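USER: If only I could read backbone structure tokens as easily as an amino acid sequence. It would mean a lot if you studied the pair and described how this chain folds. Here is the record:
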Amino acid sequence: MKNYFYLIILALFVNCNSFEEKSINQNTESENEILKQVQDDKSFPKLEPNRYNVAFLIMNGTYNTELTAPFDIFQHTQYRENIKAMNVFTVANTDDAITTFEGMRILPDYNYVSDSLPKIDIIVVPSAEHHLDTDLEDDAMINFVKRIDKEAQFITSHCDGAFVLAKAGVLDNSVSTTFPSDIDKMRDMFPYLDIRKEVLFVHDGKYITSAGGAKSFEAALYLCEYLYGKEIAQSLAGGLVIDWDVLNVSHLIIE
């Protein structure tokens, strides 16, 4: 009788464990279904066909000006006729909002870690607070830049965004520049690179690097003039009350 009692207790224990394991598995499956549903329901920007796809790489600590200046210039191309305009969107390593250095919260359009990305024709790397230190240890971000470099027509950076490009190795055979007071730091960190002072932007092949700040507008306008001509560039500048003449901007073009 005693042994019979122990068998009943053991059976109940096994059944309880089986029920608990089944319940855990069901919960895990439910969580996976919810995650898949969230990803399926994620809203992406509408990208018009026959345009340049321009991705802005953002993260916590991104500086407003180096992001918004080229974003404004490129976004306004859609209001010009008879040109191949630009689709502009942001990419980050998260689905959560990032917070810029100045406190602006931005919800990224794409997560380059988990989302299927459109073909990127132009990538813009604005400066961020930790582009001289911890951001350069972000292997996923650096590898993303390396991957996009293989397909993009233009790679651009503003201010210390050049450090990201340098870390990714895409500037190894190109002349570049960065934020004026960080040029010596960049030379120390990447002594094999050709980094120029006293210029506000450098165009070498498909790479355009700029000093950043308000000069981010001018580097972006230069790319528009390169793609669309002087008249369109001046039109874009006029819409933002910028007196644009590339000859009045200290720059370097490597032929």
